[in-house]
Each structure stands twice: as C-alpha cells, then as structure tokens.
Amino acid sequence: MEQNMPADPPHQAEDVTEHVGYLLKRAQAALRGAMDRTLREHGLTVPQYSTLELLALRPGLSNADLARATFVTRQSGNVVLRGLQDAGLISRPATADHGRARPAHLTEEGRARLGEVQAAVYAVERRMVEAVPAHRMEALLADLDHIAAALEE
Q: pTM (2 decimals)?
C-alpha cells in the first residue's frame, strides 16, 4: 500500500505562513484593505480609482482594456464604467464607431475627483514603500515583475 508523502516545499519554511505566495497574498490583502478604507472616504472603490488613474494616463481605453488593467472581469469592468459615467466622472459615446468598443475619457469632474483622491492613495503607497529600505526597492520591483511574468500564461 502506497502512502501519500508530503510534498517538499518550494523553499525552506517553518509553515505555510512563511511561503512566498502566502506573504504576497498577505501584503496584497493589507494594501487592498488600506486602499478600501482610504477610498471609501472619497466615495470610490479600488476598481473605480484604478480606472480613473488609467484613463488619466491613457485616455480612450475600452472596457476590455480597462478590465484587464484593473484586474476585474469585463462584466465587472462594465459595471465600474457605468457607475463612473452615471457619477459624471467619465464619458463614453452612446454607440461604438466600429466594433463594440466604446472608448472612455475622464470628464473635467473626473479629473478633479482624481486629483482630490490621489494624495490620499499615494500616502497609502508611501507607507508601504517606506517599509522597504531604499537600497532594496529596485530589486523588489524587479523581483515582483519576475514573479508575475513566471506565472502568466
């Protein structure tokens, strides 16, 4: 009779709470919680804020592009866009010029709202970044990028 032997961990760790994946998830959950608390004060969600940031950087993105970039499904992305449009923060044409894509753009109100909330969001990121010694930041960013690339298909 064959017994199931425990698998060897990917690196030396006392338990699962010391695994890289666990620690990455813990950091992501802490960041998301801090972002949620901060953005709630401004009447926005993380996907809404991310969408505003991306549209400020790259006006005219489609729902599909924004959904991918904000890590939500296309259906959820559409809900986010409709909410931002109803709030007067973005504009989209009623119909698509070609295909189904309706490019989104920030309105003046959307630009102003983004400006109001950016300082609060950047303060959250500053708290996170200050926990890492400055001389290690470049390596951390490269390592996180390598981790993501290793898992993307």
A: 0.83
